[in-house]
UniProtKB/TrEMBL annotation:
It comes from the Bacteria. One of its GO terms (molecular function) is flavin adenine dinucleotide binding. It comes from Nonomuraea dietziae. Residues 3-331 form the FAD dependent oxidoreductase domain. Keywords: Oxidoreductase, Thiamine biosynthesis. It is an enzyme of class 1 (oxidoreductase). This is glycine oxidase. Coiled coil: none annotated. Pathway: Cofactor biosynthesis; thiamine diphosphate biosynthesis.
Length: 351
């Protein structure tokens, strides 16, 4: 039996796929789906999120994105719940001449990598997204990017696990032993393999280089769909994005703060998000504020996840930083021994 420690999008996805493959699994988590997965925007956007030094992460992201349509369809079939998977792309927009030059440079880098992106004028951007500010000067459309609602994904995973009678033990793990887990009340659960998927808290249970990176994010409610696709841009040097949901919700995110395990929502964090989002889409300030939350991204020194066995009886599935929702379907495949070349990029042995 596999004992999965942590029931966020990563741990729950692993449990579901293993159970589906006929394996015996138990999930241990005092508060499933309450961590970073509860905060996440749910962008499945490896192309628009590409960064100059992160080509290995891009490879993982593209492979994960390819798996999402089948993953979502099977999860919806198993759970009877929608995950709001949408594949209408991301529009990355620029304002000033400097922003436009930076975006043009990024587009050239994307071309060099063979990524399918389309350059648009300001007018073409507004034709696609009429609510964009008139000051938008141009943009780049990554038409293959997609998104889901992570809260719906974890709800669907928990429902699917319940249907399959996979136990979710609502208790905290305090020690990982070889093939066993000690719980806070002293009880020891025994299996064959422990999979550590405790997100930003993984370092409390094993010697792994994972640190929390705080992200504040808000959800707004709109009576009418405000946007047709994800919109992102740089404003005053900081990135901001808006993600539309099927039910009219618009997610605005997200700050990146190195503040340890601090999860306070601050006035300054929300002010920055709203100030920047309003530059992109002036209408956002008219919307109803539905929810604000801060989550902790599990970050590693090279921004790549840690997936695979560290020793007999212990495997890691953590450190997914900004992309745990995107990477969840691939992570389960890597743990099941698929795609060895990509698995090598995530090997815990690299540290
Ligand atoms: P978590 O969701 O944090 O789950 C860890 C679980 O471990 C928790 O449920 C916790 O209760 C449990 N746990 C902790 N300690 C113990 C213990 N001792 N015993 C048992 N259980 C324990 N990713 C994307 O792909 N796209 C996005 O658009 C995106 N946007 C984001 C926006 C924000 C603001 C943030 C914060 C993150 C975002 N991410 C995004 C990143 C994504 O949320 C994470 O990479 C992903 O959720 C990590 O999932 P996880 O299951 O590893 O961790």
């Amino acid at each position: 039996m596999d004992l999965i420690v942590g029931g966020g999008v990563v741990g729950l996805s692993i449990a579901w796929r293993l159970a589906r493959a006929g394996q015996d699994v138990t999930v241990i988590d005092p508060a499933p789906a309450s961590g970073a997965s509860h905060a996440a925007a749910g962008m499945l956007a490896p192309v628009s999120e590409v960064a100059y030094t992160e080509e290995p992460l891009l490879r993982l992201g593209l492979a994960a994105l390819e798996r999402w349509p089948a993953f979502a369809a099977e999860l919806e079939a198993d759970s009877g719940l929608s995950v709001d998977y949408r594949a209408h792309g991301t529009l990355d927009v620029a304002f000033g001449a400097d922003d436009l030059a930076a975006l043009e440079e990024l587009a050239a880098f994307m071309d060099k990598l063979g990524l399918p992106v389309e350059r648009l004028t300001g007018r073409e951007c507004r034709r696609l997204e009429p609510m964009l500010s008139p000051s938008v000067r141009g943009g780049v459309l990554a038409g293959g990017d997609a998104w889901v609602d992570p809260r719906r994904v974890t709800a669907a995973l928990l429902a699917a696990l319940e249907t399959m009678r996979v136990p979710v033990v609502p208790r905290r793990a305090t020690d990982l032993l070889d093939g066993a887990v000690r719980l806070a009340d002293g009880e020891i659960l025994t299996g064959e393999r422990v999979v550590l998927a405790a997100g930003a808290w993984s370092g409390e249970l094993a010697d792994v280089p994972v640190r929390p990176v705080k992200g504040q994010i808000m959800r707004l409610r709109s009576p009418h769909p405000l946007l047709g696709r994800c919109v992102r841009g740089m404003v005053h040097g900081s990135p901001v994005y808006l993600v539309p949901r099927g039910d009219g919700e618009v997610v605005v995110g997200a700050t990146q703060e190195e503040l340890g395990f601090d999860t306070r929502v601050t006035a300054g964090g929300l002010y920055e998000l709203l100030r920047d989002a309003r530059e992109l889409v002036p209408g956002v300030t008219e919307l109803e504020l539905a929810d604000v939350v801060a989550g902790l991204r599990p970050c590693t020194p090279d921004n790549l996840p840690l997936v695979g066995e560290v020793r007999r009886g212990l495997a890691l599935a953590t450190g997914h930083h900004r992309g745990g929702v995107l990477l969840a379907p691939l992570t389960t495949a890597l743990l099941q021994g698929e795609e060895p070349e990509l698995a090598a990029l995530c090997s815990p042995q690299r540290f």
